[in-house]
Amino acid sequence: MSQPRQNRALVIVNTNFCSSDGDVVFGTRRGAKREAEQLSNVLSRLNYKVKLMHNKTAKEIEDLYQEECCCEHGDYFVSIISSHGEEGVIFGYDSEPVKLTRIFQILSSDKCLVLTEIPKIFFIQACRGAEFDQGVVVECDSSEPEPDCFSDYLSIPPQTVVMFACSPGYVAFLNVFGSMFLQALLKVLEGEERHLALNRLMTRINWEVAFCCQARGTYEGCKEMPCFVTNLLQEVFPFSA
Fold first, then answer.
1. 214: region left, alpha or beta (phi > 0 left; psi from -120 to 50 alpha)
2. Which contacts of 196-202 are long-range, i.e. CB under 8 A and separated by 24 or more positions?
3. What are the tens digits of pLDDT across the range 39-49?
4. Distance between alpha carbon 210 and the CA centroid of its chain, in Å?
5. pLDDT < 70 stretches in the chain
6. Fewer Cβ neighbours under 10 Å: the N or C end of the chain?
7. In angstroms, rounded to a whole number, what is the distance separating the alpha carbons of residues 208 and 225?
8. pLDDT at residue 146 in the model
């Protein structure tokens, strides 16, 4: 009896950035490397063959997704990107931008036949602007308030889910211990919530970040609100290994 094909995961983490002249452009992302390694280890335990890549240029990032089009995939493809960014863009190690729509196009059904019917799930830890979320006071009658957020429209190919660390226009926080967003993802994947359907799992991450996380130090009290967009037509359970 043949073994089922293994799911695949591509984790890209950029921690250092320089220009073509060798000048430092963005600040070093301390804490991102260890966090990416933790997530890679968890995904490996959940039946994913993980490719963890550090400090890749914009061109190398595109090439990594092109390579996925030539691989044999299981039931799901997961990708985690951790880098500096702006709305619709993440930056390579060379400080050059990579449009997210370009990544999604590479994996679209007309370009990547092997992933046509396979759910493609992205978790993106990157800023989407320069605004700081000061948070709001939530009043409710229940003992446990429900999260209130919205998803920005994004053109994505069929069978694709994208979850962002923050809302459009806002910064995503990272410190030496990791990011609010990916630490919440890690907590969910290590707990019983991993057995939830993907949309419920992501909503749980929203709740965790919105009500259990806030910035310290210089940005004391600032908040973060993840959001996601999906065009899946059915419930999926990508981490219920």
1. beta
2. 196/237, 196/240, 197/235, 197/236, 197/237, 198/119, 198/121, 198/161, 198/230, 198/232, 198/235, 198/236, 198/237, 198/238, 199/230, 199/232, 199/235, 201/239, 202/161, 202/163, 202/226, 202/228
3. 999 999 999 99
4. 16
5. 1-4, 20-25, 130-154, 212-221, 241
6. N
7. 10
8. 39
Residue 152 in tokens: 């920005």
Helix residue ranges per DSSP H, 163-225? 180-190, 198-212
Q: What are phi and psi of 123, to 5 degrees?
A: -120, 120
Answering whether pTM is above 0.90, one says no
CB atoms within 10 A of CB 128: 23
**φ and ψ at residue 230, rounded to 5 degrees:** -145, 145
Token readout for 181 is 């967003």
Q: What number of other Cβ atoms are within 10 A of residue 53's Cβ?
A: 14
Angle (deg, nearest 10), helices 180-190 and 32-45: 20
The kind and range of the H/E element at 59 are helix 58-68
Q: Residues 210, 227: contact at Cβ < 8 Å? A: no
CA distance 102 to 220: 35
- What's the topology of domain 8-133+146-231? Rossmann fold (3.40.50)
Question: Could you please report the per-residue DSSP string of 101-170?
Answer: HHHHHHTSTTT-GGGSSS-EEEEEES-SSSB-B-------SSSSPPP----------SSEEEEESS-TTB
- Chain-centre distance for alpha carbon 161: 10
